[in-house]
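User: Predict structure, ligand S-adenosylmethionine.
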Amino acid sequence: MSEREHDTVWDRTRLEAPHTQPDKAQRVRRMFDAIAPTYELVNTLASAGRDRYWRREMVRVTAVRPEDVLLDLACGTGDVARAFASGDPRPTTIIAADFSRAMLQLAAKRPAAGTLFTQADALHLPLANGCVTIVSCAFGIRNFQNLGAGLSEIHRVLAPGGRAVILEFTIPSMAIFRHLYRFYVGRVLPALAWLVSRDRTGAYRYLHKSVLSFPSRVEIVSSLKTAGFSDIVVRPLSWGIVTIYLAGKTGI
Ligand SMILES: C[S@@+](CC[C@H](N)C(=O)[O-])C[C@H]1O[C@@H](n2cnc3c(N)ncnc32)[C@H](O)[C@@H]1O
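Assistant: Predicted complex:
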């Protein structure tokens, strides 16, 4: 790729259909490598601190058992892994995986005790079948090159009886919140993010467009079923701005 690392990754044309770009994964990785240093600060400011509550809820609904082995997929700077590690009980082992080196390096600087880090693509995990009992993935699946392939890979690495807990942005169902949300994510957030991060990759315009064009809750549930999951629980939070999906892999 001839563009320099921090130059535009998501231009206007690509943002018309971010999920069908043939090189979406490479673009996502370059984007996160570029915004890594200010990622957490923008998150906290943009969500007014709600992002911590969303991750805590993720931990709560998962109902961790002390013998659990957790894979935190698309771990970013490690917030979800740290939230699980500070739970009671906490999983016996936590593996944190991400394909962005810069995000992973920041996660490894503040490791929760007993966390193993691996640079890996969620669609091709270097893990054996059925080797973990929980897969968590916060704000990751929307970035996958192929949603169905990513969910199948999560299902593959889960042991029978294991569960996936997924947190992702969704569009609020109530019209008033939907309009406010669109204005905020489309106008306010890119300006705020630019002030903080001076981002030139288009990361926060990508966030807006990729949320709007991402499958709905109903479609995600359908994709989870196609990937082999059952006992799916859907829990919208904060007026439906985000949704937690808890999905089980059958077996004993
Ligand atoms: C929005 S961040 C979320 C980080 C973290 N889970 C959190 O809640 O803050 C998305 C992360 O997913 C990672 N990611 C996206 N697609 C991926 C893939 N195919 N394989 C591994 N990591 C991926 C990115 O590098 C980025 O760190």
